[in-house]
């Protein structure tokens, strides 16, 4: 089954009330398209200890949040070297993609380079 892989830009769009992004994610869920991200992306967007990021908290309940372990860190470093880029979080997002997935990103240029360098047949979609 395909999924939407979310980078920080997708989460921030929801946080600021972007109706188009919210609708896009609802349609995905209605069509049994999973939502996937990782803990490093969550760290990029989560700022409120008191839980005032209600929209973000609701979204996170629907997202498969993958761990970033040593193996992922090494793979991300290798991918960065292949792609000639330097954003570690972008590399971990690209590594989440599986064939048929779509990556929702606010950085389509770098994510595209990473996906191509990793040989993953995923579609990069600007958000």
Automatic annotation (TrEMBL):
Record-linked SUPFAM superfamilies: PIN domain-like
InterPro entries documented for this protein: PIN-like_dom_sf (IPR029060)
Superkingdom of origin: Bacteria
Protein name as annotated: Twitching motility protein PilT
Organism of derivation: Frankia umida
Organism classification: Bacteria, Bacillati, Actinomycetota, Actinomycetes, Frankiales
